[in-house]
Amino acid sequence: MATFTTPGTPDPVPLEVAGSARARRRGLLGRDGIEGALLLGPASSVHTLGMRFAIDVAYLDRKSRVLAVRTMRPGRVGLPRPRARRVLEAEAGTMERWGVRRGVRVTVHGA
After folding, report:
1. Which helix (H) or strand (E) holds 2?
2. pLDDT per residue rounded down to tens, the chain (111 residues)
3. Hey, which bits of 20-106 come out as E strands?
4. Rounded Cα gap, residues 73 and 51, in angstroms
5. Residues in contact with 24: Cβ distance below 8 Å, sequence separation at least 6, in sequence order
6. How many CB atoms lie within 10 A of CB 42?
């Protein structure tokens, strides 16, 4: 299983990688939650239409630096981030706990 870390993450965080177009389209739809996070790429925006829970969304540039972090309630459409290459999704409130914030580099292990 893949994981990710940041300078502020005490332990590696479990990470699912949505590598296919089908997996990216599905994202977290139909789930009641996620343990860890989901990495979508390539992607520069997301939506929460049909989602059952609020999520934190971190937009990553080509060097995996966080451009922005937003919390999205179900039924929302996010604006595209022109420099974003990948998107990290997790349950609302977890990104702050993991130290994922603007300017931080996310390091993916085992993906």
Report:
1. strand 2-5
2. 799 999 988 899 999 999 888 888 888 888 888 999 999 999 999 999 999 999 999 999 999 999 999 999 999 999 999 999 999 999 999 999 999 999 999 999 997
3. 37-40, 55-60, 66-72, 86-91
4. 8
5. 18, 40, 41, 43
6. 11
What phi and psi, each to the nearest 5 degrees, are found at residue 19?
-85, -20
Q: Tell me which residue has tokens 């022109």.
A: 82
Bridge partners of residue 70, in order along the sequence? 57
Contact 108, 15 (CB under 8 A): yes
Backbone phi and psi for residue 25, each to the nearest 5 degrees, phi listed first: -65, -40
First to last CA, the chain: 8
Q: What are phi and psi of 13, to 5 degrees?
A: -100, 130
**Residues 81 and 45 sit within 8 Å (Cβ to Cβ):** yes
Please report how many Cα atoms fall inside a 13 Å half-sphere around the Cα of residue 42, on the Cβ side. 6
To the question of pTM greater than 0.90 for the whole model, the response is yes
